[in-house]
Amino acid sequence: MHELGLLRSVVTAVERAATTAGATGVEAVGLRVGTLSGAEPQALDGAWPIATAGTVVDGARLEIEQVQAAVWCPGCGCDQPVDEFYALVCPACGTPSGTLVRGREFAVAYADLETPGHG
Ligand SMILES: [Zn+2]
Asked: For the domain that residue 103 is a member of, what is the CATH number?
């Protein structure tokens, strides 16, 4: 599963942060996931317990913030949301635009670490 590989990288990054902070556990992990990132939020939810099993991240909540993809439209002079990668055409005025301004994000937004004597 594609998502499992992505989450393993996330878990590794959070583990590293937790070790550095001397954390005893992780409360929650927030991910920013673009609609064109190739990762399905549902599949991420499903793979999360597998990716975190046996790590310090085990038991943490996964909080996914979806980022709607958008192109820059020179016709409108602003960003316009798009649903499909291959429809890089402004949905408002039809001007072709090859400039994707967001939607490919796949990043850790935050990790709520449980540290001794804190919370
Ligand atoms: Zn437009």
From this structure: 3.30.2320.80
How far is the centre of ligand 1, averaged over its atoms, from the C-alpha of 70 (Å)? 11
Asked whether residue 57 is domain-assigned, the answer is yes
38, part of any domain: yes
CB 112 within 8 A of CB 31: no
Nearest-angstrom CA–CA distance, 71 and 40: 21
Whether 91 is covered by a domain: the verdict is yes
Is 55 inside any structural domain? Answer: yes
- d(CA 41, ligand 1 centre) in Å: 29
Residues 97/109, Cβ–Cβ less than 8 Å = no
Helix extents (H) in the chain: 2-21, 41-52
Per-residue pLDDT tens over the stretch 5-39: 999 999 999 999 999 999 999 999 999 999 999 99
In whole angstroms, what is the distance from residue 84 CA to residue 86 CA?
Answer: 5
